[in-house]
Design goal:
Helix content: 10-25%
Largest sheet: 7 strands, mixed
Distance between the termini: 32 Å
Radius of gyration: 27 Å
Strand content: 25-35%
Number of strands: 29
Number of helices: 6
Shape: elongated
CATH superfamily of one domain: Endonuclease/exonuclease/phosphatase
CATH topology of one domain: Deoxyribonuclease I, Chain A
Length: about 625
């Protein structure tokens, strides 16, 4: 699943209701195109301009008011989805905190054209894409418009050039504690904060040239570029999310106003380049934040990125991998099974043990009470054999129907696959969905009461979430305990680009409790192993960052060591979200495992064409 992730399912641009509200922000000083019309109100008052509507904060000072004969030039038209057009005041007011552009929501297909000189009357609103409760920002707009076209074919205001010099290095201002951290009342400082700069250009035409792609194109016709390519680059051309204070302010989403039938949206991978000029108004969207809605779209130049391959484990090395296979079920196309299997064999070099997350039940998302995953696993393991890999055996515990979260009806779970030619699984029956496995000392060695078994499934930490799966293995005479995890998702967290700063990460409370429960189990293993220090591997999709409290909770007291620390920072990411390359999947080991070698195998997250949205990782060590 996704980080800071929207829930799975269809995604379409929401319609802007006519009575809704929106917000905007800045003027690029120095626009000097002659004003085309200078109307006055019927009462002889100074006419309302776009910059008056936008104001110098995120919410219009004229919110809810009717305005008449606002002049401007049509700079772009959206003829599908949330239909409407953008107008821009040719004569800027010189205040860099007020925008000269605004979106006019029509609902129906607009009848104006780019270059039309217009007068627009309507109601000022603030529209929150996705709903106000999601915590995103609003877009200032005019609704219920009456439009008068005065002339056509007029010159357009010059676009604002967006580059590293234009985007401040600080991402967001601090929110007002008295307003739950909202930044809506904050006067925009476009010279100081990136979110303020984008807000101050909202609705205005902007221009980018030869921008590096840092987030791959998606099925929804979008990609992410960076305007500050020197900020925390990855080894493969992305931008790394390295801390809560390092949000990479240069990230910008790009979508197209050109219908796909006229020009399909280009396919782009991280490391590619959006070459040439991309021009259009700056909008805001719930999925990704500030967005360049391109009326002119550049060309994607291939950066040559290819999927990685890890090296095979040596004879005396144990290789343990983790892979989130994104809701795998028998209803998936045969191609998905084949691609995942090929990755296991070719890219992961057939690891000895494979912890797999998001294995769905045998009826997939159909909510019919099925909890077994025998068919899903049969298809997957047979595909691995067909790809030239070993005949993996598997062990897992079927969940209670509807109790483990994920896609409704899917009953996702973690499963342990293993190559019986290389490693032995110690079966200790009795583990089921509600029975906890315990640590038992046998001959001075820590073992499990149930293998496979679940860790504390009744603990509130695992409510509506996947329970950890523990398995006992033997490799070259040594006992190795493996704990496969898939912690609670980030659903419900406020977005990085939202109006609450810093954003509330409400979902992490549950992950902290989950990390504490796993760490306590590891503590019990250490105390039970009286003969020699226990060899424990904790791995999987933790849905949190390596710098998070979740990660620190797991490594508290030195019971576990995060193997990510063995990698250069530029290589620490397993997922790409809104242009941020970030860690979600982690592998931790007990100190008894010396000189672990971790490899994050980048085969999915950076690519438009992906078999899963996560990159797998593989750990190698000599027990």
């Amino acid at each position: 699943m996704r980080s800071t992730e929207p829930t799975a399912g269809s995604r379409s641009r929401p319609q802007r209701p006519r009575g809704a509200a929106v917000l905007v922000g800045l003027v690029a000083g120095g626009l000097c195109v002659p004003l085309l019309a200078q109307p006055t109100s019927a009462a002889g008052r100074e006419p309302v301009r776009v910059h008056h509507i936008q104001g110098d904060t995120r919410v219009s000072p004229l919110l809810g008011q009717s305005v008449e004969d606002v002049p401007g030039v049509v700079t772009a038209v959206r003829a599908f989805g949330s239909r409407g057009f953008w107008v821009q005041e040719p004569n800027a007011d010189g205040d860099p905190a007020t925008s000269e552009g605004i979106f006019v929501y029509t609902g129906d297909a607009p009848t104006v054209s780019v270059g039309d000189e217009v007068l627009v009357s309507g109601t000022v609103g603030e529209y929150y894409p996705g709903g106000e409760e999601r915590g995103g920002q609003s877009v200032t707009q005019l609704t219920g418009p009456e439009v008068t076209v005065l002339s056509s074919g007029n010159a357009l205001p010059p676009p604002v050039e967006l580059d590293a010099a234009a985007i401040p290095g600080r991402y967001a201002p601090e929110g007002d504690p008295a307003a739950d951290g909202s930044i809506e009342g904050h006067r925009l400082r476009p010279d100081r904060y990136a979110l303020d700069a984008y807000e101050a250009w909202e609705g205005m035409v902007v221009h980018i040239t030869d921008a590096p792609v840092v987030g791959p194109s998606t099925e929804y016709g979008e990609l992410w570029v960076t305007l500050r390519p020197g900020d925390r680059p990855t080894a493969r051309g992305g931008t790394r999310y390295a801390s809560y204070a390092a949000s990479n302010p240069g990230r910008l989403k790009v979508e197209s106003l050109i219908p796909f039938a006229e020009r399909p949206f280009p396919e782009a991978n991280v490391g590619d380049r959006l070459a040439g000029a991309t021009v259009g108004p700056l909008d805001y969207d719930e999925f990704g934040g500030y967005t360049l809605a391109a009326r002119e779209l550049g060309t994607v130049v291939d950066g040559g990125l290819t999927p990685e391959r890890t090296r095979p484990q040596r004879r005396g090395e144990l290789a343990i991998a983790a892979y989130n296979v994104e809701n795998l079920n028998p209803g998936d196309a045969e191609e998905k099974f084949e691609r995942l299997a090929e990755a296991v064999v070719t890219n992961l070099a057939s690891p000895d043990i494979l912890a797999v997350e998001e294995i769905q039940d045998d009826s997939g998302p159909t909510d019919d009470g099925t909890v077994t995953a025998t068919e899903t696993l049969r298809l997957f393991t047979e595909a691995i054999v067909a790809a030239g890999g070993p005949s993996y055996a598997w062990r897992g515990v079927d969940p209670t129907d509807g109790e483990d979260g994920g896609q409704p009806g899917g009953n996702i779970r973690t499963v342990l696959l293993f190559n019986p030619e290389r490693v032995s699984f110690v079966d200790r029956p009795g583990g089921d969905a509600t029975t906890a496995t315990e640590v038992v000392t046998r001959g001075g060695v820590a073992t499990l009461s149930h293998s496979p078994g679940r860790i504390a499934p009744a603990d509130e930490a695992w409510t509506d979430s996947r329970k950890p799966l523990a398995g006992e293995f033997r490799f070259r005479g040594e006992t190795v305990l493996v704990i496969a995890n898939h912690f609670a998702s980030k659903g419900g967290d406020q977005p990085l680009h939202g109006r609450f700063q810093p954003p509330n990460r409400s979902s992490e409370v549950q992950r902290h409790a989950q990390a504490s429960a796993v760490r306590e189990f590891v503590r019990e293993i250490g105390e039970a192993d009286t003969q020699r220090p226990a060899k424990v591997v904790v791995l999987g999709d933790l849905n949190d960052f390596e710098f998070s409290t979740t990660a620190r909770e797991l490594t508290a007291d030195g019971l576990l060591v995060n193997a990510l620390g063995t990698l250069p920072p530029r290589e620490r990411y397993t997922y790409v979200y809104e242009g941020n390359s970030q860690v979600l999947d982690q592998t931790l080991v007990s100190p008894a495992i010396r000189r672990p070698e971790l490899d994050i195998v980048h085969i999915n997250a950076e690519f438009a064409d992906q078999a899963s949205d996560h990159d797998p990782q593989v750990l190698r060590f000599r027990p």
